[in-house]
Structure formats: C-alpha cells, structure tokens
Amino acid sequence: MTDNQTVQAHTDAWTHSIESIAELLAPLPGDSWNRPTECPGWSVRDVVSHVIAVESELLGDPRPIHSLPSDLRHIKDELARYLELPVDKRRCHTAPEMTSELEYVIIRRSRALRNATTGADDQVRFPAGPFSFDLPYRQLLRIRTLDVWVHEQDLRRALRLPGNLDSPGALVTRDVLLEGLPKVVAKLAGAPAGSAVAFDVTGPLEFLRTVRVDENGRGSIDSTIALGPDVRFTLDWDTYLRLATGRVRPDALPAGAVEVAGDTELANRILANFVLTH
Known about the structure:
Helix content is 47%, strand content 13%. The protein is of the alpha+beta class. The protein has two domains: 161 residues, dinb family like domain (Four Helix Bundle (Hemerythrin (Met), subunit A), Up-down Bundle), CATH 1.20.120.450; 93 residues, SCP2 sterol-binding domain (Nonspecific Lipid-transfer Protein, Chain A, 2-Layer Sandwich), CATH 3.30.1050.10. The longest helix is centred in the N-terminal third of the chain and has 23 residues. 29% of the residues are buried. It comes from Kitasatospora nipponensis.
C-alpha cells in the first residue's frame, strides 16, 4: 500500500466509525445517554463528549473554560484531568445538543481531512495541552481511527447494540494492538527464551498469531502456527479487545471466556499485563 493509500484507508476507517456513532445516537432516547460504559466514570454522553472534544482540538477550536469538581474519583492523574475537563463541561447538555455538535464536528473534520495536503510522513502536532507531541501524519490518523472505533464499541456495549466488529476501524485497531504483544509476552510477562505463545482469536474478526521469544529475550510476532506452544489462548475478538484496551480485568470475565492451554503461570502473567492501550 502506498503512502497516499494508507492515509486514505485510515481516513475512510475513521469516517466509517464516527459516522456509525452518529447513526447509533440519532434515535437514542434521552435517558440512554446516562448509561454507564466500561470507561471508568464515563456514561454514553461522556464518551461522545470525549470524541467531540478531541476532534474539536484537532480542528484548532479553543478548549472550554471550566473548573472540574474535586470529587471525581476516577481521575487518577493529570492526563485524565486534562481529558475530563471538556467531558464534564458537556454533562449538562441535552441529547439534541450532543447530536448536533457531533454532526457539526464530523462535517468540519471530514472537510479538513478531505482538503489536507499533509504528506503521510510529515510531522504534525497532536494537540493535548501540556501532553502535546509530534508524530507522522499517518500515525495521527491511525491513532484517531483506533480511538474512535474503540469508543464506538464502548457505546455499543453500553447500549447493547453490537455491530461493526469487523469494520475498517476494527482492522486498524487489530493491527495496532498486535504490535504490542511481543512486549507483553517477552518483557512484561517475562516469557523465557525459546518460548512461543499462541493467540487464537475467533468471532467476526478471526486471526491467529504466535509470539516467539528469541535467545536474547526479544519477542517477535507472526501468523504461523506454533506446534505445541508453551501457552495457547483461545478467545473471541470482543473479549480480546476488552482485555487489550483495559475495559475488563481477566478475573472479571465469565468462566470460559478465555481458554488457556499450557503453562498457566506464564498465561496468568501475560493476562495480568495485557492492557495495550486505554
């Protein structure tokens, strides 16, 4: 895939996911906006507020002037406080106000992306106040695709309206999450040199990946089948996603959600360190 094709593919995946969110919310009764999600402290309204806030900052909109309450127990650090401010500001907004703002942001961001002349490898700024950083344009689009699609799934689980688990955004997210597996297995879980750990993921987005640890303790990942791996995980894609994004702890899953074969001690260490993004 060429650089331009990569940019276009990520843009299309972002568009599909954020428009899916808008379609999901359009017929939503007012009381459903208060349903809790798996994001600590955040309701459906709060997740949508977060999506609006990040896309608005990327458009160059000023952040709202607002003081956070001091009793928000889910705020653990300064980054969480930064992200919470525009979310808390919108907690008094009505459902029509929320859907109108989201639709307007989608129109503006879609136009900005369509008219962008930025090259795939050009350095751009991710605006996040004191947490801002530079990264290649293609990586910015990739991050935004992952974030929007993962939050689409947060909303779908909260509203019990599953869907789009194999959409373009799902494919982008899968690839991003897979990149972190070697570190989880080899470094964080301390899998010994020469070991192999297989992940057999089922459901709408099926894949099989094996993480191998070389003699120097470095991990690598491939799609070949490992004969007699030290550990083999079998789980569905939604469970994999929830674990990898920190939406659920391994011990909170129902029995049988993750089937483990092989070294159970190593398997438990891997599951304890499985959060790849938030």
